[in-house]
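Support reply, case 0932

Customer input (verbatim):
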Amino acid sequence: MNMNIREFIEEKKKKMQFEQLHTDKYIKLFEKNGKDLETLMTYYECALMEIETKLKVLNAEFELTREYSPIETIKSRLKSLDSLIAKSHLYEVKPTFEDIQDKIEDIAGIRVICGFPEDIYTVADCILQQDDIQLIDCKDYIKNPKPNGYRSLHLIISVPIFLEHEKRDMKVEVQLRTIAMDFWASLEHKLKYKKELPADINDRLVEELLECATAGAALDMKMQNIRRQITGGTSHIDDAVDLQQWM
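Our regenerated output:
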């Protein structure tokens, strides 16, 4: 009986959240200013193209000069309107395009998948050396993993886009991960949205996911050490590089 009551309450809460999501001030802002929203999202899309081009150029140069590229794959995305609204709610952003651009820093995002941990810092350093890139914020979840085991390097950067009559600086979030980090994060993201589990099972799965993240990090370091032995024990960049120097 108690379980049925809890399920009833949860369904009511979800319904209220759904109704709020589709009737709040941000939806009204977007509906009244559809053209402005389309323009803004196009600007972010242009910023993604700028960063993606820079990464592809670096990739081509690495393959020429080192016969090896630290970049495995590049994925880009624009935040969906539902996600943008939800985050605006969370951050208590004013319902204006100016405040949304100022407070929400990951509307445009690029994920760079690298082969080894030290490659992450190589790519980050190369991007930040470019004189039109400004580092706004850096969160290193590789040196300081999240409590659940999540590892990644997050950079919020500003890149200029050149329009017909103006130059605009746009924010882009760049996430850099190894293959193992990305595999773990993708699966963990899918699993955490599954139905409500009993507390004891949930706690056990949280521990197991943390163990998997630790095992993945150990595998990354072991493979990196093997790579260093094959290449004569050299590294292209110290993986302890201080990225704060670019801020």
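We compared this against your earlier run and they match. Two observations from our side: The two ends are 56 Å apart (CA to CA). The first helix runs from residue 2 to 21. Please reopen the case if you see a mismatch on your end.
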